[in-house]
Design a protein that fits this description.
Growth Hormone, Chain: A; 17 helices; globular; mainly alpha
Amino acid sequence: MNIYPKRWQALGYLTAGAFLSPLDYFIVNMALPSIKKAFNASDHQLQMVVAIYGLTYAALVVCGGRLGELYGRKKIFTVGLYLFLLSSLACALSPDINFLIAARLFQGIGASFLAPQVLASVRVLFKSSEQPKAVSIFSSVFGLASVAGQLLGGFLLNLHWTAFSWELVFLVNVPVTLLCIVGIHFTMDNNREEQRQNIDFTGALLLVTSLMMIICPIIFGRKYDWAWWIFAILFAGILLLVVFYRYEVQSLEKNKPVLIDPGLLQQPPFVLCLIIIFFYNFTSGLFICYPYYLQQFLHWNPVETGLAIIPYGLAFFLGPLLVSRIKLSSSILISIGLSLLIIGFTLTSLFIFLDERPSIFLNISLFLAGLGHGVIMPVMMRKTIGLIDKEKAGQASGLISISIQIGSVTGGTIIGTVFFSTLSMIGFPKAFALAVFLIAAAQITGIFINKKLVKYNKN
């Protein structure tokens, strides 16, 4: 008998809380034109509204996972919910753009507390036979968020029966967080490490600083025309990341507390899984380019734009649910997921190149790409977290979240830069077709890495 009888109910509230993190990314993108008009904000300030959230989320997510291990995943998850609730209210009631940016920073902190507790809790609460289904349910949330964010954002921005407009995209978080706070209180135990340790503050500072120095140049490089000092900061961030790793190794040797057990990064299969996760999250480039293409080139309104992403989002939602019923090895499922991504995005690129407007064929190709995303995500999460002992599940979950976030930021920046840089030279349709094709090309890396994973499984 499982010692966590309410684990499935708890998973519902955990996934609902985790749903907020990607939802906020998609829904806020839809609200940027309205925010710009309300505050007369510059493009740089709008970029900060989006970037500061992802930046703090990615930089602090490992710390969130470690805090869950030390103080209890239920407790830290609840703290994250309260932070997300209060910061969402602050966003909606912002008197100016700078206040909104500051509130978004705290939203990112709340998200960094929420996300790592979910995968870690699945590893702890569920039997190995139940974990595939639990991870699939969690993964389907990301597909649902991509649809809900675009659609809900479009509909909320077109409502005219309240005094609010863009504020509604933040206020929608309030009932979800309140529901989760109450629900998680009655369904989940505060599982944590048996032996309480001190927090590795030096390691946390080194990691957060290094990630900020890596992510900031990627986000703001295009704004400053990729000046030499952008690459200097990026290189310094990578060096500082090496310093952090060496510090953690020395701390472990001296029996001092560590933020991340260096042994995790000394396991080749685990590291290879993180690299695959990094590259398949280049798909974020689609959500940057496609809405812009539809609204600026085809002059579609927000609701029409939101509806256009349904084929991808619906397949992304269905993929994890289908995977839980398919009895194939993880390596085969990874190959299937990556192949669907490559085929789907390649066909999307071809159809846009041949016909500038969305068509039934384009929707089918987006559905294939979304299905690939939905297939590979739960398989990679389950495989990666399954390589790690339960006691280190929080740290592993944090590293997975970092790979997702940095992959999304890097992919979005590379794909977005190619798209916006080639617009004036080759025009909207060809620029978008090129950008989408690059997403497909990035997945080829995952195919080769998966072959290495298969070799490790045989050894």
